[in-house]
Design a protein that fits this description.
The protein is of the alpha/beta class. Helix content is 48%, strand content 17%. The strands form 2 sheets. Strands 1, 2, 3, 4, 5, 6, 7, 10 and 11 form a 9-stranded mixed beta sheet that branches. A two-stranded antiparallel ribbon has the order 8-9. The N and C termini lie far apart (79 Å). This is Glycosyltransferase involved in cell wall biosynthesis. InterPro entries: Glyco_trans_2-like, Nucleotide-diphossugar_trans, TPR-like_helical_dom_sf.
Length: 367
């Protein structure tokens, strides 16, 4: 059986680090924690799980800290987590099985990263990440902010999932790091341009965000998933700025990178719904329900756009077109995914009343 080193970087994570380590302590063979300047009880909590605690002076560069943490590993494979990540019980068992059967010919193992859930516990947003890597390959982290692990070789896609239990961090941290780099004349990579634009958008700086998304896309060197996501975020910026034509162009721009994705079909559906072009809206919402979502896609996936949401919007469209039977059918399809959704239940009651009234009128006409 292979051995695993857990490598993490932390700072002031007293509310989450124990939960994280508890979920993995009986699976990994070594726990390495690199602390970048905690002033709370983080180190004290970590000491209950390991004595391999290392200090690293924070230099506004996540990759340097993560690469230092990887240097502390001594086992066959390196597993990395953030303090607000956990392995839920089913995934702990899957990880144990993976560890037992993992062959040393594998260079990296991807795991699903579950980011958000609906009220029934169903995953709504996820992506895949290279989460377990062979130590001797010496894979490196790249990027001061929104760092990524550059891997290659023989990659195994596993069925193990890491669950993110969000904990609020300093909302300005990443933006300030990028702003400092910009002021210091640091040349941004295409990836930096994209993530800086994301930070600007998250801080409602839509005009600047728009410019940096455009700069990112103009490099033509971005990862395909980032290119597609940038088109959606750029469309959001144009919508906030009231530039409807540019908003539409940004949505359509995503099609040059891949086949239409459900999210962008829904975006187009909503755009045409707002324009009262109902038949065009129906076309795009219907297409969103028909596109097969790839399970191997490493980018963000929000399953709402291929499940209940387009059916709910089709209900709205068909209702406005006066086609109430179709509206009811699609509302029922949406209800299969969200049986207690307030809008869906409202539609059900309303449409049943409309259809009953139509039936009563038809009976009177036949009489």
């Amino acid at each position: 059986m292979v051995t695993i080193s857990l490598c993490m970087i932390v700072k002031n994570e007293e509310t989450t680090i124990g939960r994280c380590l508890e979920s993995v302590k009986n699976i990994v063979d070594e726990i390495n924690i690199v602390d970048t300047g905690s002033t709370d009880q983080t180190k004290k909590i970590v000491s209950k799980y390991t004595d391999r605690i290392f200090d690293f002076e924070w230099v506004d560069d996540f990759s340097k800290a993560r690469n230092y943490s990887f240097q502390q590993a001594t086992k066959d494979f390196i597993l990395w987590l953030d303090a607000d990540d956990v392995f839920l019980a089913p995934d702990q068992e899957k990880l144990k099985i993976l560890k037992k059967n993992l062959d040393l010919s594998i260079d990296s193992v991807t795991m699903d990263y579950h980011l958000s859930f609906d009220e029934y516990g169903n995953v709504t947003t996820s992506l895949k990440r290279n989460r377990l890597v062979k130590r001797t390959k010496q894979f490196k982290w790249i990027g001061a902010v929104h760092e990524y692990l550059e891997v290659g070789g023989n990659i195994l896609n596993s069925d193990v999932a890491v669950t993110h239990k969000r904990h609020r961090h300093d909302a300005n941290r990443n933006l300030l790091i990028y702003e400092k780099q910009l002021a210091d004349g640091v040349e941004f990579s295409p990836r930096d341009l994209y993530y800086f634009a994301n930070e600007l958008k998250d801080h409602l700086m839509y005009e600047r965000a728009k410019d940096f998304y455009e700069r990112f896309l103009s490099t033509e060197k971005g990862w395909i998933e980032d290119n597609i996501a940038a088109c959606g975020k750029l469309a959001d910026c144009y919508a906030e700025l009231g530039e409807c034509k540019n908003q539409l162009n940004a949505i359509l721009r995503s099609f040059q990178y891949d086949h239409p994705r459900p999210e962008f079909c829904c975006r187009l559906g909503y755009y045409f719904l707002q324009q009262r072009a109902l038949n065009a809206a129906v076309f795009w919402y219907r297409l969103a329900t028909q596109i097969e979502v790839s399970k191997d896609n490493l980018g963000f996936q929000n399953l709402s756009f291929s499940t209940w949401l387009p059916h709910l919007q089709l209900c709205v469209c068909y209702d406005q077109l006066g086609q109430h039977e179709k509206a009811y059918k699609h509302n029922e399809k949406a209800r299969r995914y969200h049986p207690n959704h307030s809008s869906i239940l409202h539609n059900k009651k309303y449409l049943e009343s409309v259809l009953q009234k139509k039936e009563e009128e038809a009976v009177k006409t036949r009489e």
